[in-house]
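Review form for a predicted model. The reviewer records the input and the model, then writes brief findings.
Reviewer: anonymous (R2)
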Amino acid sequence: MSFYQKLAKAGSKYIGKHTLFKHGFNLSPMYRRSTGRITEVSQDLMQIHVKLPISYKNRNYVNSIFGGSMFAAVDPIPMVQLMNILGEEYVVWDKAAEIQFKRPAREHLYAEFTYSFDEIEDIKNRIMTENEITITKRTELMNKEKTQVFCEVKKIIYVADKSFYKNKRAKSKSKT
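Model under review:
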């Protein structure tokens, strides 16, 4: 269990998990450097909103938002969000990512991360039959009016039953 997971577990005893998620991300050094900020988290963690303001901290050589900041602002959210929704019986890892820049961003950007109840139920049902799966989540960084897409990020996320994952790792270690 990581430092952040231990902190989240202890902190959720005193404040709501959604409040802890928002402020924990916004205060953590690894996320602060992205210059993105989580602005809203639903109580059930199924929806998260991020703002990436343009500032001197993330402007690049051509005066638009640095692509690395765009990616870093959205990169950890879908995996950590899903980990918290599914709970400790599952293993969740980022497996791959792809970023496609659509146009230079010279204004604040916004992103939404959503899981539906049907999607979560489907993931759990697939894990019961397949033990491990991958899912794909797409995120768009858009202007405030949601009329222009500046960047699209596709994340491939690995999800497995925790006991299956531990057995799989133990078998692969014993072969070496």
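Findings: The mean pLDDT is 92.
Further findings: DSSP finds seven helices and six strands in the chain.
Recommendation: see findings above.
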